[in-house]
Write a structure and sequence with these properties.
The complex is a heterodimer of chains A (about 375) and B (about 900).
Chain A: E1 2-7, H1 21-44, E2 49-52, H2 64-77, E3 81-83, H3 100-105, E4 110-112, E5 119-121, E6 126-131, E7 159-165, E8 167-168, E9 180-181, H4 185-188, E10 193-197, E11 203-204, E12 209-211, E13 227-233, E14 241-246, E15 251-259, H5 262-274, E16 281-291, H6 293-309, E17 312-322, H7 326-331, H8 336-348, H9 359-379
Parallel strand pairs in A: 1-2, 2-3, 3-4, 6-7, 7-10, 8-9, 10-12, 15-16, 16-17
Antiparallel strand pairs in A: 1-13, 5-6, 11-12, 13-14
Chain B: E1 2-10, E2 19-22, E3 27-31, H1 38-50, H2 58-62, E4 73-80, E5 83-90, E6 96-103, E7 106-110, H3 112-123, E8 139-140, E9 143-146, H4 155-160, H5 166-175, H6 184-196, H7 212-404, H8 409-432, E10 434-438, E11 444-448, E12 451-455, E13 461-465, E14 468-473, E15 477-482, H9 485-509, H10 514-541, H11 546-569, H12 582-655, H13 658-686, H14 690-728, H15 734-792, E16 800-803, E17 809-813, E18 820-821, H16 827-846, E19 852-856, H17 864-877, E20 882-887, H18 892-895, E21 902-905, H19 906-915
Parallel strand pairs in B: 3-20, 3-21, 9-19, 19-20
Antiparallel strand pairs in B: 1-2, 1-4, 4-5, 5-6, 6-7, 8-9, 10-13, 11-12, 11-14, 14-15, 16-17, 17-18
Classes of the chains: A alpha/beta (about 375), B alpha+beta (about 900).
Chain lengths: ~375, ~900
């Protein structure tokens, strides 16, 4: 019986530079905490070891402080950790794993596998067949060296675990894609389990081929990120038993919404209310629509709340066009040529909020809005 | 329609005494010098109508006289639409106003409040009315006042300032346009301000340092560049790393392949060593073979030498026999030849003696002939000598004769010259003298110079008179003929001198005359010729002189004597010398000599034959001797050679006899065959070209190693360079920097988009407003422009003006000419245009309100000609409106066409008032 934790794509040191420094620091720290969580889980579940299927670090040029912190966590966890480099932290020239900082702080229980030599572990009950990436883009299948004979000479009966980083051919990424892995290697090399990294979501490719996904999400993608896997294999040839467990702190949510009136605004307000807590969420809001000035004020208030309360509100889409309503315009009591100009702009902005909405229409609406604001300011 | 009829004032500023001014309809000219108070009259009109009197404030206090501080009073009498009014005001804290209205004969008097209300109603004054009026508001709705020096480009401002609306309201009413409407202008201004945040007034994008669009674009561009630069760095770095990895891999491959290549070199070296051993063996075998060949060749040579010696011996023996025979024959031939040689020699000696005898005889005869010839010669010379001696005697005579005449040619020539000169002198004298011819018709006795002369008829007497001649016919006639005095005397003197000279010369020459002298000279010449002839003859007979001839004859004699004695000594008979006829003797001797010569010749020929024969035999003997000695020498030499060959052969055989030699040769041949077989065997085991092939193979392998090492060193260099370049790159936290740059770029681009959208929004709003505004203004201004054009036609026919919304004059437009910007016009033109526009505005206002036009010293820079034009306009306006024209240029302006309906001299008015 071999039990181990499968994780990948921690990408420690990811900068999140589109956020301000404080928020970026939160997300960065969360990734370290995910590592901590999964190491603790490994301890709790008496896992024999942990495999990291590439992209342990975000890049070879990250701040070395991350290396020191990660090594420290691994040392204190005590469980053996086997890491292969992925495309982000590939093991070629100037690899982060080859730095003095890594060498000087690397704990004994951290094993960085920079060659495709098989490695025996857990008292010779398991053999890991690593396929480290030694450059960012590899045209060949890095598992092609794996045969049924590979590592067999070490301990013939050991459970055979492949460890690789890349997209499986099942993804249909096309022939030009880099770092492609043929999952047929499982049969060819008689692997009991192939632990993969690169895909950030949790994904089972076959009974024996799994992506653990990243333990802490880092993008707005609904593919079940934020897990690690506990894998149990009774003996060589036995079906692996794979159990995901949550590791993430932050939720990355996507929302598409079209604002046409008060009901839409109410929906959005309810959505925000449902986030528990808001400060553990990031939302990507893709929205458009047209609102009257007063409606728009209400929407703006909700958006302001989200902007402050969420770790990040990523606003996308055409956005809402705020346009004075006829009543609002009439309240301005405009006559003379100003009144005529308002009439012109209203005509031009007719398409706004309809499916024929044009850039010119949006501009005209914005111009009306501007006029309205000018008038309001003057009256105040 | 309003008509101000009378203005009264007292204690109003400089007017302390009461003053009253009557005004009529039409054009009222109020004139006087500067500071006389023209403007004060109009101010009294203004405040008398518009200012509340019952207040003490800045305005009312400003109306008080400076000295007395008394409160002013005013009274205005006017008529509006057929109703008469009289408005009286007393200013000050206790001030009051009173309005008396007379309508259709009924008189009505209104107190303060009612009066105020009535006036406001009358003129439709706005709520502002009642507040202190300010004469800076230079136009009331009904009082169009062009102030001194205020004729600029904003006529509308002055007119409308006091009561909002004013002319614009009237224009709006006339055009039915509201322009911006309520608060529209503020909206327009704000929209314009928003627009100008992004764009320049002319529509271009703002480019100043604070221009938002520009800044946003620049930031966005900078961020993009920074991001691209980092991407580039990342890419380059990645590429360099990959290159270095590739170099490392290649280096490892190359390094791994070097030992294999080196092993190949070693293998080939070993193989080559083996082959070289075989080659050495082959060479040894070949050397043995060569040695065997040499040995065999030595023996064969020995055999050949032996055979040659045998052959030589036999040959020499044969030759020795032949030579012995030859020698015997040669000796016999020589004996014979020597005998014949003796005979020939004897014969030759005989012949030789005979010839010698004959020759001796011949020589004697020939000497005798020579002796005869010498004798003959001597005899001739002796004869010549005799002749010469005779001639020499004659010659001496001839010389003496020649020398007897001493006259020489020079003397004669001198004489000739003198004679000639004398003749010339005479001729000159005769030419100068008178020639007198006396002829007689009958015989007459005359005295000529005292000499009597008789002259016959037919025999005239001629005289040359060089001095004078006295002809006298005694008893009858005396005639003196005088020659030309001085010159003739000189000429005669000259003649005398010449005559003297000639005479002296003749004397010296010893002759009587020139002819004699010449004759003597000829004689002398003849005698000298004879001397020469004789000398020639002697020379011919005795060249070198008679004495030399004498000597020669003597010598010859001596020689002859000696020769004869020598001949006689040898027995020659010299009798012939004595013979008379030496020629005959000589001929006989010659014949004898010729005969002897023939004989000698024959003897010589015989001698020649004998000599030839002797020489022939000599040569034969000599030849035979040589031949014989040659044969003898050859015989000796051949004997020696034969001896040598025989000895050599004997020696050879002594060392090795022929049989042994033969055996040895056979043995050597066998050994050679064996050695050749060994060598062939060695060659076979080496194989043809194998060694060269192996050498080349080794070279190739060595080269492969070298080339690989070169590649390795090149790769190491490449790697070092790549490392250097990698070291130069700043990649610390690169991915973080990249992410930051990407974000900065996104943010900047979003900001730029926002700014662009905002700009487009502001532009759209402003341009929409602007478009509508222009449209509106065009309609709004149309009535004013029409009226202005009507008035303006007095100045510029067909011209129109363009006004902006503030009623400022922008430009003048004339058909077919470029528009003239108002600011670019002259001050005079600006002034005229300003007044015309104001007049038009007033005319428009007058359609709805009572209006008085005040022009206060307003055409100050206009020239006379233009003034006439403007005067026509004012006259025209004054037909409908009451005009107060204040000026200090009266009556001149009247002369320029200003047609006043009423003229008030303010100076007189003031004087009258002051006088009390």
């Amino acid at each position: 019986m071999v039990r181990f934790v499968h994780t990948a794509d921690l990408q420690l040191g990811k900068p999140f530079a589109y956020l301000d420094v404080e928020r970026a620091a939160l997300l960065g720290e969360a990734r370290l905490q995910a590592l901590r969580k999964l190491l603790e889980k490994a301890g709790e579940s008496s896992a024999d070891f942990v495999v990291v299927a590439g992209d342990f670090y975000d890049a070879n040029t990250i701040d070395h402080a991350w290396v020191v912190k990660a090594n420290d966590l691994v040392r204190h966890a005590g469980v053996p950790v086997y890491v292969i480099p992925g495309n982000h932290d590939h093991g070629g020239g100037e690899s982060i794993f080859a730095t003095n900082r890594m060498r000087s702080t690397q704990p004994d229980n951290l094993h960085v596998l920079l060659t495709d030599e098989p490695v025996l572990c857990v008292g010779e009950r398991a053999v890991i067949l690593p396929a480290p990436l030694l450059r960012r883009h590899e045209r060949r299948d890095v598992t092609e060296h794996m045969t049924s004979e590979l590592g067999r000479d070490l301990v013939p009966s050991a459970v055979r675990i492949g460890l690789a980083h890349g997209g499986v051919t099942e993804f249909g990424l096309g022939e030009d894609a880099m770092n492609l892995i043929d999952s047929g290697v499982v049969e060819r090399a008689e692997l009991d389990y192939l632990a993969l990294g690169d895909w950030h979501g949790l994904k089972q490719v076959t009974d024996r081929v799994w992506y653990s996904g990243t333990p802490e999400p880092d993008r707005f993608k609904d593919n079940e990120p934020g897990h690690a896997l506990i894998v149990e294999i009774e003996h060589q040839g036995a079906q692996p038993e794979v159990t995901p467990f949550p590791t993430a702190r932050y939720r990355w949510l996507r929302r598409n919404q079209s604002f046409r009136g008060s009901d839409d605004i109410a929906d959005f307000e309810a959505f925000l209310d449902g986030l528990d807590p808001m400060s553990d969420c990031l939302v990507r809001l893709e929205y458009d629509g047209a609102l009257t000035l007063s409606e728009n004020q209400r929407l703006e208030a909700a958006l302001e709340q989200a902007r402050h309360g969420l770790v990040d509100l990523r606003e996308r889409g055409a956005g809402v066009v705020a346009m004075p309503s006829d009543e609002e315009l009439q309240s301005l009591q405009l006559d003379g040529y100003v009144g005529k100009a308002v009439g012109d702009l209203r005509l031009q902005s007719k398409s706004v909020g309809t499916e024929h909405e044009s850039e010119g229409g949006r501009l005209a609406a914005a111009a009306l809005n501007l006029l309205y604001r000018i008038r309001e300011t003057a009256q105040q | 329609m309003i008509h101000i009829k009378r203005i009264e004032l007292e204690n109003f500023r400089s007017f302390t005494s009461p003053v009253a001014i009557e005004l009529t309809q039409g054009l009222n000219v109020l004139h006087g010098p500067n500071e006389v108070g023209k403007t004060t009259i109009v101010e009294a009109l203004w405040h008398g109508l518009l200012t509340r009197p019952d207040r003490k404030n800045q305005v009312t206090e400003s109306l008080q006289p400076r000295e007395s501080k008394a409160w002013p009073t005013t009274r205005l009498d006017f008529e509006v639409d057929g109703v008469d009014y009289s408005l009286r005001k007393a200013f000050g804290t206790a001030g009051s106003m009173r309005l008396i209205r007379t309508r259709d004969g009924s008189r009505e008097e209104l107190g303060d409040a009612a009066a105020l209300e009535a006036v406001a109603g009358l003129f439709d004054l706005p709520p502002k009315f009642g507040k202190p009026a300010d004469t800076r508001d230079t136009g009331a709705i009904w009082l169009s006042w062009v102030k001194q020096g205020a004729a600029g480009g904003e006529p509308g401002a002055d007119i409308t300032e006091y009561t909002e609306g004013g002319i614009k309201e009237q224009l709006a009413r006339l055009s039915e346009e509201v322009l911006a409407g309520a608060d529209g202008s503020a909206i327009y201004d704000s929209a314009r301000a928003a627009y100008l945040e992004f764009f320049t007034p002319s529509g271009g994008e703002r480019s100043g340092a604070d221009a938002r669009l520009k800044m946003a674009r620049a930031s966005s561009e900078d961020a993009a560049q920074a991001h691209e630069a980092l991407k580039q760095l990342e890419e380059t770095h990645g590429r360099l790393l990959e290159q270095r990895d590739a170099a490392d891999r290649k280096l490892a491959e190359h390094r791994a392949s070097v030992p294999k290549l080196r092993a190949t070199v070693r293998e080939r070296e070993e193989a080559l060593g083996e082959l070289e051993k075989l080659e050495a063996e082959r060479k040894t075998r070949a050397a043995v073979e060569q040695q065997r060949e040499a040995e065999l060749a030595g023996l064969v040579e020995r055999e050949r030498l032996r055979a040659t010696l045998l052959e030589q011996t036999a040959e020499l023996e044969r030759k020795l026999e032949e030579l012995s025979d030859q020698q015997a024959v040669a000796i016999a031939d020589l004996e014979e030849a020597r005998k014949s040689q003796g005979t020939a020699r004897k014969r030759f000696e005989t012949e030789k003696e005979r010839v010698q005898d004959l020759e001796r005889e011949l020589r004697a005869v020939e000497r005798l002939v020579g002796l005869v010839d010498a004798e003959s010669n001597r005899r001739q010379l002796a004869a010549s000598l005799e002749d010469a001696n005779m001639i020499r005697s004659a010659l001496l005579d001839a010389r003496a004769a020649a020398q007897a005449i001493s006259l020489d040619e020079n003397t004669v020539n001198r004489l000739d010259e003198l004679t000639s000169e004398l003749r010339d002198a005479r001729v000159r004298l005769e030419a100068a003298a008178a020639r007198v011819v006396v002829s007689a018709e009958s015989v007459v006795q005359l005295e000529l110079d005292g000499e009597a002369v008789s002259i016959e008829t037919g025999e005239p007497m001629e005289r040359i008179v060089t001095d004078s001649l006295i002809v006298r016919l005694p008893g009858t006639l005396g005639l003196q003929i005088q020659a030309g005095q001085g010159s003739v005397a000189d000429l005669r003197t000259a003649v005398d001198a010449h005559e003297q000279a000639v005479s002296v010369a003749l004397g010296e020459a010893g002759v009587e005359s020139l002819a004699e002298a010449k004759s003597q000279l000829r004689e002398r010449s003849d005698r000298e010729g004879r001397v020469q002839t004789l000398e020639t003859r002697i020379e011919m007979l005795a060249p070198g002189g008679v004495d030399a001839l004498q000597t020669k004859v003597g010598t010859l004699d001596h020689e002859l004597t000696q020769e004869r004695s020598r001949l006689e000594e040898v027995g020659v008979d010299c009798a012939a010398l004595g013979a008379e006829d030496l020629l005959a003797e000589r001929s006989a001797l010659r014949t004898r000599a010729d005969e002897l010569e023939t004989v000698v010749e024959g003897a010589r020929q015989a001698l020649g034959g004998a000599e030839d024969a002797r020489a022939e035999f000599d040569a034969e003997v000599q030849g035979l001797e040589v031949s014989q000695s040659g044969v003898a020498a050859e015989l000796v030499a051949s004997s020696e050679r034969h001896e040598e060959a025989a000895q050599a052969l004997a020696k050879e055989r002594e060392a090795l006899d022929d049989a042994e030699l033969k055996t040895k040769v056979n043995e050597a041949k066998q050994k050679l065959a064996d050695a050749a077989a060994d060598r062939a065997k060695a060659e076979e085991s080496l194989g043809a070209g194998v060694l060269e092939g192996a050498t080349r193979g080794l070279e190739d392998a060595t080269k492969a190693v070298e080339s690989k090492q070169k590649e390795i060193s090149k790769l190491e260099q490449d790697r070092a360079e790549l490392n250097g370049r990698l070291g130069e790159q700043d990649v610390e936290k690169l991915h973080e920097r990249l992410a930051v740059a990407q974000n900065a770029r996104d943010v900047a681009e979003a900001k730029q988009k926002r700014a662009e959208f905002e700009a487009a929004t502001a532009r759209l709003l402003f341009e929409t407003l602007e478009h509508r505004k222009e449209e509106s203004e065009a309609r709004f201004l149309a009535p004013l422009q029409t009226d202005v054009a009507e008035l303006l036609s007095q100045l510029w026919p067909n011209a129109t003006i363009e006004l902006d919304s503030k009623l400022c004059i922008e430009r003048v437009v004339r058909p077919g000419k470029p528009g003239l910007e108002f600011d670019a016009l002259s001050a005079g033109a600006r002034e005229q245009l300003g007044i015309i526009v104001r007049l038009s505005m007033t005319r428009l206002l007058a359609k709805v309100q009572p209006v008085v036009v005040v022009l206060d010293d307003s055409l100050v820079v206009t020239d006379d000609e233009r003034f006439r034009d403007v005067a026509r306009v004012i006259n025209y306006v004054a037909r409908d409106l009451q005009v107060l024209f204040l000026t200090c240029h009266w009556p001149r302006q009247g002369d320029l066409g200003l047609a006043a309906d009423n003229v008030v001299d303010i100076g007189s008015v003031r004087a009258l008032a002051d006088a009390g």
